[in-house]
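Pasting as-is:
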Amino acid sequence: MRYQLPPRRISMKHLFPSTALALFIGIGLLPLSSNTFAANSWDNLQPDRDEVIASLNVVELLKRHHYSKPPLDDARSVIIYDSYLKLLDPSRSYFLASDITEFDKWKTQFDDFLKSGDLQPGFTIYKRYLDRVKARLDFAIGELNKGVDKLDFTQKETLLVDRKDAPWLTTEAELDDLWRKRVKDEVLRLKIAGKEPKAIQELLTKRYKNQLARLDQTRAEDIFQAYINTFAMSYDPHTNYLSPDNAENFDINMSLSLEGIGAVLQSDNDQVKIVRLVPAGPADKTKQVAPADKIIGVAQADKEMVDVVGWRLDEVVKLIRGPKGSVVRLEVIPHTNAPNDQTSKIVSITREAVKLEDQAVKKSILNLKQDGKDYKLGVIEIPAFYLDFKAFRAGDPDYKSTTRDVKKLLTELQKDKVDGVVIDLRNNGGGSLQEATELTSLFIDKGPTVLVRNADGRVDVLEDENPGAFYKGPMALLVNRLSASASEIFAGAMQDYHRALIIGGQTFGKGTVQTIQPLNHGELKLTLAKFYRVSGQSTQHQGVLPDIDFPSIIDTKEIGESALPEAMPWDTIRPAIKPAVDPFKPYVAQLKADHEARSAKDAEFIFIRDKLALAKKLMEEKTVSLNEADRRAQHTDIENQQLVLENARRKAKGEAPLKELKKEDEDAIAAEPDKTKPEDDAYLSETGRILLDYLKISKTVAKQ
């Protein structure tokens, strides 16, 4: 098939002519210091000339080439200021109210500072932060030195754990009391998790001393990275400044793709959170880790576990990466734990590159009985949109690609005389845009597949010009929150062309295009385009909304584009196709009603809904008790509630009840099994039943 590709390939040489930067690289006098700021114990940390020049280049590049081109004004200054404070002290546990009052005088001036190359305000705030953190860590170590066995857990005390909206504390005494309670809470969490007092004392003392040591190693480069990246990310979360150390890893800030274990990570206060697993990657293959799990320790093979609580994301990454074939052990707190449950598990992962064949599409047959009749549905699981570029460019006629493999499997399924096809896009994080458009062409007659709008308003149309669809039969797409990017382009096209029912959860919402621009010092990754569906809707922020919703196993407040600060909004442009009659619309209400009636009696759906309701209830708790008896009682109560849910599910399935809830049972999610039998996958089976409902209803109406 031939496609109408964008008339030009976007290159940095074209987008950023060499003269564009000349003005800023050639500046003579640049402000490197200011006498208006108080001295402190970190005075040796000062911005250098290269960093000042780089900051000016970032300002100009964002002004000229960012997709939305928002003005750098007082309103932007407030966003930068608030974001910087949230980056440094998200739980309001270090700065005093007097610090904030002092900093507030710059709240609307960061635009002016950045335009003039004055980096001192950003450095001053960061250095005050270093002072405050050092004082808190010293205090925490002092509390531990008194002996954790001396702590009184019989008092009726509570700790506010969700402090993002709490007022800034006004005195050192108030901070001391907060940190006394924080240390007490850390000890109690570990105590309930089964650790002995001596081990707790050693672990926490070592943790705080390590954080102090890393604090002492802070470089001016670290401050510049944090400050300028905060400025860049005020435009959108995928626009990042990368220091020279991080430039080769262009996605290290908000998220990081690790070739070693196949995971996407993100900083989450003092911990590192797993955002997504690369399908068929080393971490995914273990079936022991999942999105929203927290990594608190890293070890090399059989060596000692290194506590990484409080470490920067890039520091944790350095520990996780290693030679191919070597083993890394991660200490992980499962996302299924109650909010205050520190019970962890150790997962061993063999580092290796993700192989193309491991991500290849797979087929299976879903056998269902409905209304007394047996049906066969073909299932095609697409973990990623892949293309063997090397073989493709070499002219190899047998090169592998998602579209080629799907076409082959569709041929086999048609020979099997399936009644319809379900395409499983769950956890598909994207891949080749070319493959997303090529795959679309298998299911439509001809026409546009995706629109790409650049910062100047020009819209490029990727189009299938070859008439005729390869597969015209009934189809459903199963998506979830981790279906992203290219997956959303394909799912959106199938929805806009009314080729498939979209079932599952709201997709990720990543609908922007980034590029890398080298600077004199580091690099800038900036957003320069957005994807749009052929209906004119962006996939950005909103993602693709399913026709029929399933309970979301993944918390959309934690994972997804809309969970990121300053995410660019959903919007629309002129459609590329004329609206056509939607064959599904007349039946969606009935399909939803039938699904809800069926799932209300289904043991797996009942379990998932009840477990999600319990998790939501627990997450809404803002304070924790520091009384050991109360805390243990709460812990036991939560475990009992989880056990009741699990045993209700097991009873409905005819299985023996459990006496206690083991972690391996608790971590198992009914809708995400090992997929040995498609019928055992609750979400996949229900998707098939909805497709069969549609076939039945539409045929009945057609006869009438």
